[in-house]
Inverse folding.
């Protein structure tokens, strides 16, 4: 008899897990509380296919990003989803950034990522407007339509007879009376052999709903984007990234040419006042209280509030400061070249000691699998994470 599995969450990860389980013969139901698929993190990111460059060798992020770079591109091409493997530059704008750029080159080699150090002059052959003393050219980075990947997964799941339910939140979870799990949706109680939690920004709360005490809490960080005005898009040919701060999980404000030819700039990273809040005025007292009650928040603040956190807030409030960050990479970019282009919210898992969870975090309980930390490069790695989760469900 086919294993019955309920997947909570209709972003790229939940749909990828559902597809992997379906291919293995599972009888799958996907519950998504919103009325559209990919409503949150998947639908509000930079649509970059990451190469696996930044992550600690041997980590799940490193392994799954490198493998996912190929599998997600192959999936897109087979299923008619927009994708382009265009490569990118990570640029050192000063001599002081060269050691960190060298570490990235070493990580690329250790992770099996095709990348090479090039001079500033060689970098300008790729990006004539860039300013740098040296750069790392990463060939396998690409651009993709992640919501389009989700739409393709939905079509495949429908063709295989999976049950896909939009507008259906999980309101209660308990062990089944004869084994497995039961999930209350408000309209009915669904029964299954196993549960997979891919709820992203709500993943820790869904775990608690299922009787699991997660080892980490979700703290939401909003990332805001601008676009270059159409008449200034010629300043960027592909993807230009700064050398990131190795102590933070964020990659810094960067420039990305999208599939439609537009050029996105961002994101920054500020604490969101609502787990699903894409503007400063989106405020949830309950979400703020959750963050304030968690000891890890205050320990994180002691480490990063000044000057890092303050700089991010000021950049959020000032287009001029945002433009100055971009001008370090491409000096011709100025405030008048930028137009607001929305934002996303990153579900960042935080430990009680104030440490940001650096790797993917997946925890299990009887008949349950909870994906508790899957920020970038989770979309790139979605098909690989799905295989890991499906193995855990079957174990």
């Amino acid at each position: 008899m086919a294993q019955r599995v309920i997947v909570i969450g209709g972003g790229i990860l939940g749909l990828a897990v559902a597809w992997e389980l379906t291919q293995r013969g599972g009888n799958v139901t996907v519950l998504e509380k919103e009325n559209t698929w990919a409503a949150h993190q998947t639908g509000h990111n930079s649509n970059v296919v990451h190469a696996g460059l930044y992550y600690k060798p041997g980590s799940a992020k490193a392994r799954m990003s490198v493998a996912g770079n190929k599998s997600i591109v192959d999936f897109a091409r087979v299923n008619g989803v927009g994708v382009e493997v265009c490569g990118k530059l990570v640029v050192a704008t000063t001599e002081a950034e060269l050691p960190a750029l060298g570490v990235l080159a070493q990580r690329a080699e250790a992770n099996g990522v095709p990348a090479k150090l090039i001079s500033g002059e060689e970098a300008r052959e790729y990006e004539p407007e860039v300013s740098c003393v040296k750069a790392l050219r990463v060939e396998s980075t690409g651009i993709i339509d992640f919501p389009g990947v989700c739409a393709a997964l939905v079509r495949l799941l429908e063709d295989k007879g999976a049950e896909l339910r939009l507008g259906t939140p999980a309101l209660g979870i308990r062990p089944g009376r004869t084994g497995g799990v039961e999930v209350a949706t408000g309209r009915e109680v669904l029964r299954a052999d196993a549960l997979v939690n891919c709820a992203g920004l709500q993943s820790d709360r869904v775990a608690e709903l299922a009787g699991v005490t997660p080892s980490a809490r979700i703290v939401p960080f909003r990332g805001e984007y601008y676009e270059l005005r159409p008449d200034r898009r010629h300043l960027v040919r592909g993807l230009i990234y700064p050398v990131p701060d190795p102590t933070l999980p964020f990659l810094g404000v960067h420039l990305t040419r999208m599939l439609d030819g537009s050029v996105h700039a961002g994101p920054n990273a500020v604490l969101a006042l609502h787990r699903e809040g894409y503007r400063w005025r989106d405020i949830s007292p309950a979400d703020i209280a959750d963050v304030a009650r968690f000891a890890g928040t205050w320990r994180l603040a002691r480490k990063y509030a000044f000057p890092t956190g303050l700089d991010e807030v000021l950049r959020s409030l000032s287009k001029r400061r945002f433009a100055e960050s971009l001008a370090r990479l491409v000096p011709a970019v100025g405030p008048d070249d930028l137009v607001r282009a929305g934002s996303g919210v990153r579900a960042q898992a935080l430990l009680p000691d104030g440490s940001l969870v650096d790797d993917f975090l997946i925890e299990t309980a009887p008949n349950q699998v909870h994906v508790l930390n899957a920020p970038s490069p989770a979309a790139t790695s979605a098909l690989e994470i799905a295989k890991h989760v499906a193995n855990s469900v079957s174990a």
